[in-house]
Amino acid sequence: MTTRFLSTQGTRMYNKVVSDYQNLLVLTVVLVLIDLTLLLIPKPNWLNYLEFALALLVAIMVGWLTSRLFEKFYQAYLQENALSRKINAELLMVGNVVADTAIFLIIFFIFAQTHQVNVLGLTASLGLGGLAIAFAAQQTLEQLLGGIILYIDRPFVIDDYIGLPDGTFGRVESIGLRSTKIRNSGKGTLTIVPNSSLTSMSIENFTGAKKVVSLVYLTFYRVVLEDERALIRQVILESTNEIFGIDSRNTDVTFKDTIQEGRANMTQAQINFFILGSGEMSMDMRRQLLDMAKQSMTLRLKEYGISFDIEERPIDVDAPITI
To answer: What HEC string does 242-277 produce?
Structure first.
């Protein structure tokens, strides 16, 4: 059916996104049809309980499956578009979280609507209770919400060296729900800062400013002439010029000839890529973008008739900023 009714691009996207979950998708559709049948037909009271349990199972399956399919689509979209435009990895991660939240809310409201759950009454009750608690413990709630924001946004983690506008500088020892403890450099004293204050401050993270150097070697097995070297350097620089998080200004290409029996018989190129990031998640995303840039670079050079072997040595060197 996919081959007959979908385009080439649609079939490729289907194979990347849906094929791994095809059997589970069929099972979920069957359970949805069974649940809809139980909802529509007259039934005894004991069957209502069975239908409610089945509907809850269906809601969980649909939510989990939809979330997984969206995540696969997100990865496929990234692979399709990473090399054609600048992509902000953190923004894509936020979009993934927002999509999961929207999926949960939509399924919850559909479940509530089909099973006569008074969502407005429940929301109003929770709202009144929340207002009462908020007025009673406003400052404590601000600090707790600040802790949650720090855990989600992660402007720093434990053992990072940070600086605050009031001159506080030191290593983060712990991040609690109410406050963060910073061990001051030089003095050794401990500064305890409420999380609600940290969410509104300009924080300078010295440890988080990472730069990863990735080394790639191209072996040509022949002598590469000067005009070919200029072409190779141009293709390499253009491959990473538009990728967000890759410092293309510092991308360096060095050619070296191998001398045997008094004459050059082979050329090797060393490429230094610099990846900038602020956390493990963004660094992993940018490594994936760099891998796709290497694939694009390889294809373009082969189109020019330049054959070579690529060697990716595991020499990724973390180079944090000097304090």
So the answer is: CCCCECHHHCEEEEEEEEECCEEEEEEEEEEEEEEE
